[in-house]
Design brief:
mainly alpha
Length: about 300
């Protein structure tokens, strides 16, 4: 989970430690949840193992394609977007890392995201709204931010960590509505009733733990990406300008469009939140704009010395 050996993005031990801890804790909770289901639903344990394992592998293997399609991204060529590809080429050469696929999403909301299980299979996407609103240096700052996610491999960790909580809920629904609870002939009605009560409660706890752990990791990884991008480009002010501009413009996007984008906030450069929603940050996927700008200002001072 560390930065690629060939990347010049500054390694971040704090990020690596948090990724390892998050994956360990969520994995531990998930294994315990699966074990509980096997104990309670003895007659259906082969199906539970098969479904949980199959869905997990499929999500990890096809996470980039799933995310791209959900966010309306399509791969573009250098002939279609020469300036965008040129910026990615320069940054990849500067970071000494493999060039990811480049995609664009036809969306007026100014934003960007990166996804992929490893640098060689990653994709960096920007929206048409972002391309229209940012200058060349601001765009490079945003792209460097997204490339740092790829180099540090935290995109894959977020994808897996977030999926485990969703998977726990999916298995629970299948167990309850698929008739597995109480289907064992050796179990009596009271055991079935207990299983029907315990399984949803445990699933909610698993989801809550996964939710909180991924939110804590998500906020830190955004600060880490800002820091790595500013240090790589040497222009923290350009990234700060992009952050300010993007955050202000997103607040003006219609609420309906923001709600459609909110399920993918953990992947975005800036969260799809209205001005009112931005006030409540307890469970936010991103640190506050003020916190991010404060860090960039500090880096700017350090580079000036």
């Amino acid at each position: 989970m560390s930065t690629s050996q060939h990347s010049r993005f500054a390694p971040d031990r704090g990020l690596t430690g948090r990724m390892v801890t998050t994956m360990f804790l969520i994995g531990l909770v998930y294994v315990g949840f699966t074990g509980l289901l096997i104990v309670l639903l003895r007659g259906a344990w082969p199906l539970i193992v098969l479904i949980s394992g199959g869905l997990f592998v499929a999500q990890f293997w096809f996470s980039d394609k799933i995310t791209e399609r959900a966010m309306g991204a399509h791969e573009v060529t250098p002939e279609q977007y020469p300036q965008l590809h040129g910026a990615v080429d320069r940054l990849c050469a500067l970071a000494d890392m493999p060039k990811p696929r480049v995609a664009v999403a036809d969306n007026d909301m100014p934003n960007a995201f990166a996804t992929g299980r490893k640098p060689e299979k990653s994709v960096v996407c920007v929206t048409t709204g972002l391309l229209r609103r940012l200058g060349p240096e601001e765009l490079e700052g945003v792209l460097a931010h997204e490339l740092s996610h790829v180099a540090h491999r935290d995109v894959a960790v977020m994808t897996v960590a977030g999926f485990l909580g969703v998977l726990a809920g999916a298995i629970t629904r299948m167990a309850l509505y698929g008739g597995f609870v109480g289907s064992n002939r050796n179990s009596n009605d009271s055991n079935a009733a207990i299983a029907a009560l315990i399984v949803p409660l445990v699933a909610m706890v698993v989801y809550a733990i996964s939710f909180l752990l991924t939110r804590l990791l998500s906020r830190y990884r955004e600060l880490a990406a800002d820091r790595a991008a500013a240090q790589l480009t040497g222009r923290p002010s350009a990234l700060a300008s992009a952050l300010t501009k993007v955050s202000g413009q997103i607040a003006a996007i219609p609420t309906r469009d923001l709600r459609q984008a909110q399920p993918y906030n953990a992947f975005y450069f800036a969260p799809a939140l209205s001005a009112r929603e931005a006030a409540g940050r307890l469970f936010s996927t991103h640190p506050t704009l003020e916190r991010r700008l404060e860090q960039l200002e500090k880096i700017s001072t350090e580079l000036g010395r």
